[in-house]
Amino acid sequence: MKFGVIVFPGSNCDDDMIHVLGTVLGRETRKLWHKEESLGDLTTDDCIIVPGGFSYGDYVRAGAVARFSPIMKSVIEFANQGGYVFGICNGFQILCEAGLLPGALLRNREQKFIAKNVYIRAETDNAPTNRDLSPGQVLRIPIAHAEGRYYADEDTIYQLNQNDQILFRYCDGAGEVNLDSNLNGSIGNIAGICNENRNVFGMMPHPERASEELLGNRDGLIIFQGLAKAVAAAN
């Protein structure tokens, strides 16, 4: 199993992802340039990471331009064939813009960029990213975004809940989901979701920034470990 990490102009978490997946997890990992039209030797047995950053300077709106990069046609085909795709922060925004995940990421409630550690609660263990998590388990993960307020219409939110597609919600340290812990104003405190087929995932917090003891926090590593195990088991 291999990981491919897409690099757009303005990506700033690609090297972080390469380090965590390659050095920490020991998985074969390579960069994929946004102008490429092919995923190279990566197959649906592998996983594509769409990392965080400010692709194309977040012009128009976050992820709106990156969605039309040449490589995204291959990513969409890869996902539709059952390949695993994981978007983090700007990557989540791009996947929503590309229609691979429902909903949209809007400007934060207070119209300010937020960068701090927050708590999120695992809502399910029925997804590869959550394989090693228990529902209700609390993680402390950094956020860094200006357009992180998840929004979808009522029917979509209903379906996300009914289909167990909500991966994480913002919460407090005790795991309580409330308004005070919802810093960006996301509907339903939603911090991460997956698609119906459970092979495309998106979350706004940055688990790659909480995956080493050197950083004083390894809560994010469990997400990547679970994903790697799930992909390997599926193959």
Radius of gyration computed on alpha carbons: 16 Å
Task: Please report which band the strand proportion falls in: under 5%, 5-15%, 15-25%, 25-35%, 35-45% or over 45%.
Answer: 25-35%
Assembly state: single chain
* Helix residue percentage: 10-25%
The span between the termini is: 9 Å
Corresponding CATH superfamily: Class I glutamine amidotransferase (GATase) domain
Total helical elements: 5
Structural class: alpha/beta
Q: What is the arithmetic mean of pLDDT?
A: 95
- Could you give a short account of the major beta sheet? 9 strands, mixed
Give me the CATH architecture, please. Answer: 3-Layer(aba) Sandwich
Quickly list its features.
235 residues, alpha/beta, Rossmann fold, nine-stranded mixed sheet, two-stranded antiparallel ribbon, 5 helices, globular, glutaminase activity
Describe this entry's structure for a reader.
- The chain is α/β, with parallel strands linked by helices and 235 residues long.
- The chain has helices spanning 14-24, 70-80, 90-97, 154-162, 221-234; strands at 2-7, 28-33, 47-50, 84-88, 104-106, 114-122, 138-145, 149-151, 166-171, 190-194, 200-203.
- It has a nine-stranded mixed β-sheet, sandwiched between helices. It has a two-stranded antiparallel ribbon with strand order 5-8.
